[in-house]
Amino acid sequence: MAAPSIYGLSRRGLLGASLALAACQPQARSQPVPALPPLKSLAPFRVGTAVQAVHLNDPALAGLIAAQVSQLTPEWEMKMEYMLRDDGGLRFDAPDAIAAFARAHGLALFGHTLIWYAQSSPAFERLDESRVSFAGAYRNYIHAVMGRYRGVAVGWDVVNEPIAEDGEGWRDSLWSQRLGAFEHIADAYRHAREADPGAALFINDYNLESIPKKRASFLRLVERLLRAGVPLDGVGTQTHIDADLAPGELTRTLGELAQFGLPVHVSEFDVSIRRAGGLLRQRGDLQRAQAALYAEAAEAFMSLPARQRFAFSFWGLRDSESWLLREDGADTPLPFDAAGRPKAAARAWAERVG
What is the pTM of this model? Predict the structure, then answer.
């Protein structure tokens, strides 16, 4: 709980009181909406966002990022599809630019992601075994990428989305076919620990809130990794959710993920209003439901022990940069609108963590 101020109210109380007062005053309609303090100034944990290098060329967006968050996750430019060339060479231009921005603004850098079932490279697919074994190339890739940011990245999504969509076991991939279903996961963490002993090593997946069977399989995998002595340091839930998610599911999910005592990362948070169905049809109803989920997510995260609150990362800050716009240009899943103004969702989130 936030410490009380000299006026007897916590930051959360002051924020809520100011918003309530503005809403109740007759003249409030003609007055500007009260400014929202930077999100990172309210939260007693790191607040993050996803970013692409090109975003940093937009002064307005770069300024919003620097002001609002304390951690950056490269949205796709640390993934294998970007970093590993067909000839086996690596390119670091874009992730280096993101790392430089983070360093210049005092922000943490979180690496995303090393091993993902959805991406393999021609460099691996046509590997010349007479020169290097598949297992050796696998280790070399992890060492090369993590080694570049050793002592810079505070943590990594080492293995991303390992659980099958329906929750029935683990994903099939080039990695599992060549190295083994469990072995390729365990080895990735062992190689990662060698590459950077100081980085926190996470496992990350999505739909854990909306598919209980998938969440159960994820938890069983975490338990097996820990039993095997694999150096797993934290669990990440992407939390790409829809505005019609049942109340309480976010809280239940974070509570179950916390059972191992490991740090928890809400790693890719957004709330789609266009994917929602059911009884919610009017945009106003969807926006209110969205704000309620932002509030629940913040409250559930705050309920975790402080040592388990690794970071809370939004998958973008402004609606105009959301990956969901590729699916539906009318979606508005993020805390700030296209002009960089805080939405009701941002205010609801801020009120629960302040």
Answer: 0.90
